[in-house]
Design goal:
Elements lengths: L2 H7 L5 H8 L3 H10 L6 H4 L8 H6 L27 E5 L2 E7 L26 H9 L6 E6 L7 H12 L6 E5 L2 H4 L6 H8 L4 E5 L9 H12 L4 E6 L8 H13 L2 E7 L14 H11 L10 E6 L4 E5 L4 E5 L2 E5 L5 E5 L10 H9 L2 H12 L3 H11 L1
Parallel strand pairs: 2-3, 3-4, 4-5, 5-6, 6-7, 7-8
Antiparallel strand pairs: 1-2, 8-9, 10-11, 11-12
Helix pairs in contact: 2-3, 11-12, 14-15
The structure holds pyridoxal-5'-phosphate and iron/sulfur cluster.
Length: about 400
């Protein structure tokens, strides 16, 4: 047995562990464990510094999860885009391929907890049908191998999936979505890297949420993947009490670049049942983006996205950099909130998208609101600013 497998066996993995090691009462521990399985491997557990810290909040359950009655189990409506159990095919040219239900740590905020850790829903026996689906859909050129955590399977099983995908001529790139470099970096072995290398182009997106997760072990794992020629990106989730703070996010994103990990997405938390206590106002995410752009390397700036409830896919959000127009001038502000105007190139007629045009017509009074804002602005600097925007 390899080290990482040995470590997994020593995980906090039952309601009994919660009672004995974390002082939960038995009834609550059992309810939480059946709501969403508990698993924390000893490596990730060792990152906890004090009860309730950002690591703790991600992996130790909280009884508040059980009080979130109104939320949905599948807020992104993934199941509607699932032609076979192992596939979610939402975007035209790429598909998610779920190959295992297992993770080395179950994140309490997991958006896919209706399936993750449940081997009746995600199972190796559905892999073949997934490969057949991808094989018969020639529009799929990008396959995102996911789960659970796809690096939880054995080297042998992983290689079978990768080889199966590489037999399909229209699959151009393979992506692996894995939290392993963050939660169980010991899984990244020289042998794993040798296998991955055979199936290039391979991309990995990993999942770091807090600077304390950027340990020497994690750095070693990320370096090994990068040395195997794999571009490693990061998708983090904005989580209350974990990383809903611009200074923490700035540190995290700088640390990731040092580990050769390129920030890719920050997700606004989904409306998944049992995770409401992790949600932050969208304003917090925009504020974080505002404090990254310009203040650190552009390489460290991810996209901040909301995965639209109901299955609309990811929608990027940006702080307001365009303050308005003044004739043909476009009024901008930079990262220091200094105002600049850019003389735009004049176009004959600007065609608005019909959906946008309809929406704008319905909301024509927003200009009137601007004027009202100008009239009620109390300091003169603010007045001038609104004036420029309204003109
Ligand atoms: C996020 C996601 C993808 C990949 O999206 P990219 O923007 O290409 O990274 C594909 N399918 C589903 C269902 C997703 O949620
Ligand atoms: S690693 Fe990913 S799939 Fe697994 S519990 Fe965490 S968020 Fe969910």
């Amino acid at each position: 047995m390899e080290l990482w497998q040995e470590m997994l066996r020593q995980s906090v993995d039952s309601s009994k562990d919660l009672v004995e090691r974390f002082g939960f009462d038995t009834a609550t521990a059992e309810k939480l464990n059946s709501f969403f399985h508990i698993r924390i491997n000893p490596y990730y557990l060792s990152l906890i510094r004090y009860p309730g810290d950002p690591i703790w909040r991600q992996c130790i359950p909280d009884s508040i999860e059980l009080k979130d009655d109104n939320a949905q189990e599948d807020p992104l409506n993934e199941d509607a885009d699932s032609p076979v159990p192992s596939i979610t095919h939402r975007y035209p040219d790429r598909a998610l391929f779920l190959i295992t239900s297992q993770c080395s740590m179950y994140c309490r905020f997991c958006t896919r907890k209706r399936k993750v850790s449940d081997s009746t829903k995600i199972n190796a026996k559905y892999i073949q049908r997934g490969l057949e689906y991808i094989g018969s859909h020639s529009e799929i050129r990008d396959v995102i191998v996911s789960g659970g955590d796809p690096l939880m399977v054995t080297d042998y099983a992983l290689e079978k999936v990768l080889a199966g995908l590489r037999e399909i001529p229209h699959v151009e790139i393979i992506r692996i979505g894995t939290k392993i470099p963050c939660v169980l970096p010991q899984r990244v072995t020289p042998k794993l890297c040798r296998i991955l290398k055979k199936y290039h182009p391979i991309y990995i997106n990993t999942h770091f949420n807090h600077p304390w997760e950027c340990t020497p072990e994690a750095e070693r794992a990320c370096n090994m993947l990068a040395d195997a020629g794999i571009p490693v990106g990061n998708q983090s989730v904005l989580l209350k009490g974990v990383n809903d703070n611009a200074e923490v996010m700035l540190q995290l994103h700088r640390k990731m670049l040092k580990m050769r990990v390129r920030p890719y997405y920050i997700y606004q938390a989904d409306l998944t049942k049992g995770t409401n206590h992790f949600r932050t106002p969208v304003r917090v995410g925009l504020d974080i983006m505002d404090k990254l752009r310009g203040h650190t390397s552009g390489l460290a700036i991810p996209y901040y996205v909301i995965d639209a409830p109901g299955g609309g896919g990811k929608i990027p959000l940006l702080p307001q950099y365009v303050l308005g127009r003044n004739g043909k001038e476009i009024i901008l502000r930079n990262y220091k909130y200094e105002i600049y105007t850019y003389p735009d190139v004049e176009e004959a007629a600007v065609k608005q998208h019909p959906v946008e045009r309809r929406y704008m017509r319905k909301h024509q009074n927003s200009r009137r609101k601007y004027v009202a804002a100008r009239n009620s602005a109390d300091d003169s600097e603010e007045k001038v600013l609104v004036e420029q925007v309204v003109k």
